[in-house]
Amino acid sequence: MATVRPVALKAALTRHGRWLPPPWALLCRPNTAVRAFSSVMSPPSTAVVYDDHGPPDTVCKVKELPPLQIKDDDICVRMLAAPINPSDINRIQGVYPVRPPVPAVGGYEGVGEVYSVGSAVKGLSPGDWVIPSPPSSGTWQTYVVRDQNVWHKIEKSTPMEYAASVAVNPLTALRMLEDFVDVKSGDAIVQNGATSIVGQCLIQLARDRGIHSINIIRDRAGSDEAKEKLKNLGADQVFTESQLEVKNVKNLLADIPEPALGFNCVGGNAASLVLKFLKQSGIMVTYGGMSKKPITVSTSSFIFKDLSLRGFWLQKWLSSDKAKESRVMIDYLLSLAREGKLTYEMELVPFNQFQSALDKALGKLGTQPKQIIKF
Amino acid sequence: MATVRPVALKAALTRHGRWLPPPWALLCRPNTAVRAFSSVMSPPSTAVVYDDHGPPDTVCKVKELPPLQIKDDDICVRMLAAPINPSDINRIQGVYPVRPPVPAVGGYEGVGEVYSVGSAVKGLSPGDWVIPSPPSSGTWQTYVVRDQNVWHKIEKSTPMEYAASVAVNPLTALRMLEDFVDVKSGDAIVQNGATSIVGQCLIQLARDRGIHSINIIRDRAGSDEAKEKLKNLGADQVFTESQLEVKNVKNLLADIPEPALGFNCVGGNAASLVLKFLKQSGIMVTYGGMSKKPITVSTSSFIFKDLSLRGFWLQKWLSSDKAKESRVMIDYLLSLAREGKLTYEMELVPFNQFQSALDKALGKLGTQPKQIIKF
Questions:
Q1: Which of B269, B257, B251 lies closest to B210, judged by CA?
Q2: What is the CATH number of domain B6-165?
Q3: Catalytic pick from A96, A143, A332, A344?
Q4: Closest Cα in chain A to B309
Q5: pLDDT by residue (tens digit) across A265-294?
Q6: Inter-chain residue contact B299 with A306, CB threshold 8 Å
Q7: Each residue of A102-154: pLDDT tens digit?
Q8: A12: CB partners within 8 A, 6+ apart
Q9: ipTM, 2 decimals?
């Protein structure tokens, strides 16, 4: 068994003495190069680290982190893939209300393969595919060491990119569809930002339940193509915002019933359009604000139309009791992905091209598929 | 027994053949002067009638309506008093979503004394005080004939002006305080438009339950006096909007806990101020829009602060099953009024000065007490 240099071992032990601070807290210490590691130590991890909050393309650096001790209940996972989600960007920018203390490793979800397990670990073995569930910070690295409770085993036949990205966007879509209004087959929902991953998931989850979807997208070059794509996913109606500059948007619905449930991830005019489609006593759930514009609502919408406006934040939901159910939901969503009933465009990008993937995720190159880092 | 001219009798009978159209539908017929009336006919009624929707001071006319037949289950009530509520104004203007067909008699609530009863009426006798409950259109007249089920008997020791005005504003305050959040003694609420009748009722109902109230009023001449009045009613804190132009309004709360429930009857900036006071996962209920400005909300208020925005409309609530409880609530509110625990400023105005009362209610003479027509 190879020896471990005392300084690094002490640091690792300290970290494991209590669950927090997380692995990247080690970065505060001199990065003593430990190349040799024992079976109770993880391999060193190559990670996307930010020392301060700021523009992600400036503050994110790829660094090598020293090995970590693998305690009896720990599992060391070799990461396979992890997405760059908008909320990851916001965490790095420092504009997210909950964020890990810096220095920190980026990323919040992903999929990996069990590399080695602590002596007390049961039910998971090297080679198993796992995801951190509920998701947690620090997935943009090659090796992650966490307690066995953190890891949820998934079927290895799952397409890697869906396993990597299921726990944030698709789960958000599923929860929002189930938690606010009891929508049934034959009912309808309405949403803006329909080309987002959550938007695409909502369309497909609705279709799978016989629920109609009314979808609003931005006016831009290629909107006809975007409409076609969403219709192929099962969207009943897709409108650009300008198409909805009519006296009564409901006249455009044909046989689709008025929706009682709407979703807003844009704000501004696009949110007002969702409200216009809603039926009496309908609910609009806000889960994003891509336009960076607020939501403006008339008094009569509340009093006479009896609309309710709510919000959804997965991270808060995951901190509630209900989160226990989330692994069942993830299994369900991944089964849909395996059956081809839940699809969305992704681009798998090798880890050594991280900066390029980040630039795409930041929107520097126009609309791009969801970027998934492949380790 | 005096005879009744055939034309008027036929009209009355036709009206009574079905519950609708209401008494004022008679206005469509020639107003044959019937001065003589039998015991099965009501006296003629002097009423505030509007033939078309429009500015209330233009379209409202005082007219004499012919006697109505009093059927077996009917009660003829001599009206004692009825308020001019903002919603009465809106109904006449035609901007209210539900309004009686014109020509119509104004008013929606009031108190009266039983004048005569049909042969099948039980439990009510001439001299009893009654209010229409749930309230319904057409109270601005001297005699109202309706089915016995419409009338709710109240204690004659009740101050007339409170009996006349209990069924809209105080009931709105009570329902809003009970229906959205379970606020308990020691908790707090926040509201704008605190000088409104509903606002004043909320302060007093809260105080009676040991609930703190944080109150927002307009900046205007006399705001110090208004603050003092509200504090005398039991308001814990009263701020003008400009006093709340601070970085964190919650620093102004001293020992009062953050409120989980807020009320908005103003819109615009005043609504934003209510939202600022609310605690995590709080609810703001909109029941009016005095500024005529919409409500603007940030995306993060929904996602990260988890606020909910709802609306309340008494007329809708009264059409629900829960409305059965409303008479118990009215008795409770009137008992508070009799005990002096529920007070608000009113001005009793003789019916022959209706136009002057209407001008005051329309705000032509600045801030005025609630106008109550005394018949």
A1: B257
A2: 3.90.180.10
A3: A96
A4: A309
A5: 999 999 999 999 999 999 999 999 999 999
A6: no
A7: 999 999 999 999 999 999 999 999 999 999 999 999 999 999 999 999 999 99
A8: A26, A41, A66, A67, A68, A69
A9: 0.87
Is B193 a residue whose pLDDT tops 80?
Answer: yes
CATH superfamily, domain at B169-315: NAD(P)-binding Rossmann-like Domain (3.40.50.720)
d(CA B352, CA B373): 9
How far is it, in rounded angstroms, from Cα A213 to Cα A253?
10
Task: Give the CATH superfamily of A181-311.
Answer: NAD(P)-binding Rossmann-like Domain (3.40.50.720)
Please tell me if the domain spanning A6-165 has the same topology as the one spanning A181-311. Answer: no
Q: Does A316 touch chain B (CB under 8 A)?
A: yes
Q: What's residue B265's pLDDT?
A: 98
Q: Are A144 and A138 in contact (CB under 8 A)?
A: yes
Percent of chain B that is helix, strand, coil (3-state, to 5): 35, 25, 40
Least CB-CB distance to A294: which of B298, B306, B311?
B298
User: Which site among A297, A302, A309 would you substitute to test the B interface, given the most B Cβ atoms closer than 10 Å to its Cβ?
Assistant: A302
pLDDT at A361: 97
Interchain proximity B308–A308, CB inside 8 Å: yes
Chain B residues in contact with A175 (beta carbon < 8 A): none
Closest residue on chain B to A310 (Cα) = B308
User: Does the beta carbon of B95 lie under 8 angstroms from any beta carbon of chain A?
Assistant: no
Query: Given an 8 Å threshold on Cβ–Cβ distance, is A295 in contact with B297?
Result: yes
Q: Domain residues of chain A, as ranges?
A: 6-165, 181-311
- Phi and psi, residue B204, nearest 5°: -75, -40
In chain A, which residues have their Cβ closer than 8 Å to the Cβ of B286? Answer: 299, 302-303
Condensed to tens digits (0 to 9), the pLDDT of residues B173-187 reads 999 999 999 999 999
Tell me if chain A has a CB within 8 Å of the CB of B287.
yes
Nearest by CB to B296, from A294, A302, A316: name it: A294
pTM score, whole prediction: 0.88
Is the pLDDT reported for residue B264 higher than 90?
A: yes
Q: Name the residue with tokens 């929606």.
A: B108
